[in-house]
């Protein structure tokens, strides 16, 4: 009688290996997807916060006597603002002013030239689900950069504006404080 030496895996060993791989995949794949969503949402949140800081910086850079659309800052209420369109997942940064006679160059006004507006679109999978207080505009008052919900307002309810971003089921909130950087 001759004994043959067979090398390889038995069917039981292969089934155990496949079962271990399947279990590991069930744990790893959802965590990778959650990690990707969190990373994309945090990346956009950081970009969004950078835009807010930039607009705030512009508002603090305007000095008394500065010429704004034919008016000097001494004669006009000036702000930089962000307009949010939750239906289209966009926001626009623009310069807004109002003179002592009540003439205003706001977001929808003809006096606001296109080169004074900068549009941004949220990434495909991210949506702006809420803005509180429920106002579609945030103003950064010149020259102190204070945040308000309307042109000329000193403040807004609670001292902050909150934006909530969502990607799939994950939400992330940005708080814009009256005098502090966004968090």
Q: Span between N and C termini?
A: 80 Å
- DSSP helical segment count: 1
Q: What average pLDDT do the residues reach?
A: 76
Percent range for β-strand residues: 25-35%
Can you summarize the main beta sheet?
6 strands, antiparallel
Total number of distinct structural domains: 1
Overall 3D geometry?
rod-shaped
Low-confidence runs (pLDDT<50, min 5 residues)?
none
Structural class: alpha+beta
What gyration radius follows from the Cα positions, in whole Å?
27 Å
What's the total count of β strands? Answer: 11
The ordered string of helix (H) and strand (E) elements is HEEEEEEEEEEE
Helix content: 25-40%
Protein name: General secretion pathway GspH domain-containing protein
Transmembrane segments: 6-29
InterPro entries: N_methyl_site, Pilin-like
Keywords: Membrane, Transmembrane, Transmembrane helix
Topology readout:
Layout lengths: L10 H51 L5 E2 L2 E2 L3 E10 L4 E10 L4 E2 L11 E5 L4 E7 L4 E5 L5 E2 L11 E8 L2 E8 L6
Antiparallel strand pairs: 1-2, 3-4, 3-8, 4-5, 4-6, 7-10, 8-9, 10-11
Task: Tell me what you see in this structure.
This is General secretion pathway GspH domain-containing protein. It comes from Candidatus Wirthbacteria bacterium CG2_30_54_11. Pfam families: N_methyl (PF07963). Keywords: Membrane, Transmembrane, Transmembrane helix. InterPro entries: N_methyl_site (IPR012902), Pilin-like (IPR045584). The longest helix has 51 residues. Strands 3, 4, 5, 6, 8 and 9 form a 6-stranded antiparallel sheet that branches. Strands 7-10-11 form a 3-stranded antiparallel sheet, covered by helices on one side. β8 and β9 form a beta hairpin. With 183 residues, the chain is of the alpha+beta class. It has one domain.
């Amino acid at each position: 009688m001759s004994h043959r030496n067979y090398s390889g895996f038995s069917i039981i060993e292969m089934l155990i290996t496949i079962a271990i791989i399947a279990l590991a995949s069930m744990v790893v794949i959802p965590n990778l997807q959650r990690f990707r969503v969190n990373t994309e949402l945090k990346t956009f949140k950081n970009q969004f916060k950078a835009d807010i800081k930039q607009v705030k910086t512009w508002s603090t850079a305007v000095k008394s006597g500065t010429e704004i659309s034919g008016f000097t800052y001494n004669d006009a209420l000036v702000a930089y603002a962000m307009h949010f369109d939750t239906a289209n997942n966009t926001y626009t940064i623009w310069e807004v002013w109002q003179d002592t006679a009540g003439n205003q160059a706001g977001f929808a006004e003809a006096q606001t030239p296109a080169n004074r507006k900068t549009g941004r679109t949220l990434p495909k999978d991210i949506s702006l689900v809420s803005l509180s207080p429920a106002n579609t505009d945030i103003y950064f008052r010149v020259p102190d950069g204070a945040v308000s919900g309307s042109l000329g307002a000193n403040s807004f309810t609670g001292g902050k504006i909150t934006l909530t971003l969502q990607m799939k089921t994950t939400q992330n909130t940005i708080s814009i404080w009256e005098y502090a950087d966004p968090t």
